[in-house]
Design a protein that fits this description.
Blueprint: E1 2-7, E2 10-18, E3 24-31, H1 34-50, H2 61-76, H3 79-97, H4 107-117, H5 137-156, H6 183-192, H7 196-208, H8 212-216, E4 223-224, H9 227-231, E5 236-239, E6 242-247, H10 248-253, E7 259-263, E8 272-277, E9 286-289, H11 292-312, H12 333-347, H13 356-368, H14 373-380, H15 385-412, H16 417-447, H17 450-462
Antiparallel strand pairs: 1-2, 2-3, 4-5, 5-9, 6-8, 7-8
Length: 463
Amino acid sequence: MASIVKRKSKYSVVYDYIDENGKRRQRWETFSTNAEAKKRKKQIEYEQDSGTFFIPTAKTLNDLLDEYMSIYGVNTWAMSTYESRRGLARNYITPIIGDMLLSDITPRMMDKYYRDLLSVKTVSVNNRKPTSEYLTPHTVREIHKLLRSAFNQAVRWELISRNPVLNATLPKEEHKERDIWTAETLSKAMEVCDDPILSLGLNLAFSCSLRIGEMLGLTWDCIDIAPQSIENGSAYIFVNKELQRVTRGALDDLSDKGVIKKFPPCIASTHTALVLKEPKTKTSIRRVYLPKTVAYMLVERKKEIDELMDLFGDEYIDNDLVFCSSNGRPMESQVINRAFNKLIKENGLPHVVFHSLRHSSITYKLKLNGGDMKSVQGDSGHAQVKMVADVYSHIIDEDRCINAQRLEEAFYSSKTPDSVDDTEQETADTAVTESNESDAAKILELLKNPETAALLKQLAKAL
């Protein structure tokens, strides 16, 4: 059994274990919060009861990363995160500094390591061509995040006294805005698209702010396109899973965590598997309401699939998927991407990636609702409103100049110097006119008297 002991502002999980010599020893693992300590205590007790518990005894960085991923990563990360970070460790940490003793790792050495990473060539992953020849500052920062978390865990396990990358000097990263289509370009693309599957994908990705994995994992049991729902504007899709190709190693390490369904391979493959899995975050699970046009497109797609099921009979593999091949097998992202790139090339459209349709969607919705980020977050599935604000703040900036123009017209235009001078001149002219009209009236009144009129005539002759 384990217990929790508070030491100043820290919380330590204390437990006994038997070392390699058969002697009983005590170990302390320190955490910043009581919640973290309670979580680790439950994990230790569960693993002790099930006979799977082992003591962190890392000597080298490789040892630490292995223990960190098997204890922390397996229990905390989603499958995509696990694959990504394991790849970073395997390609850029283990071969370079993995054999170093934890006691020899210093902040100065780690700063040099981060700097030198910029001259390391990018490793191809899953036969995909790298987007850059050498590691980018963004990748270096991702490696730093992994090491910072691993070293923090090592401090909690009391394997080291301090985190050597806590105040690391990292290369500056220039954030490049993603190229997206305007509403006019997207409208043109939809008009010239003659591929019904791609057309449905374009409309769904844009109207519902979907990631491509969410779109390809969409099943008919999560769609309401009943005639009454479409008529009253309440037709919707429910996003609760995504289609993803993952490595079998990650599936084994995570014991199929979060996997809803594994599809049989079309060809013999021992390296990867195609799965339907839970979304990366809970906020990605959401209901998105459909425009009527897109709802009717789904109605037509359902009719097509029903016809294919009748045509193929028992040979049709019914996975209940909206996006599937003619025999019902899942449709992978490369199929959509190839069709999308073909559409761009044949019609001279600006080159963007399919994921940019999600960005176009969020951009357009923010403009329509005047920057209501909370409602857009509900459609996009971002974990935090701040993420929407950080990524799409340029959209709001575009409208700030319009605000200045409106303020000028509504408030300042009536108070400009020219306007003031014009107003004063108009007032003066009015006063002169009124004065002249008053004098003329008086003269006319005087001329009505014969004696005064005669006197004025004499004065006029004398002048």
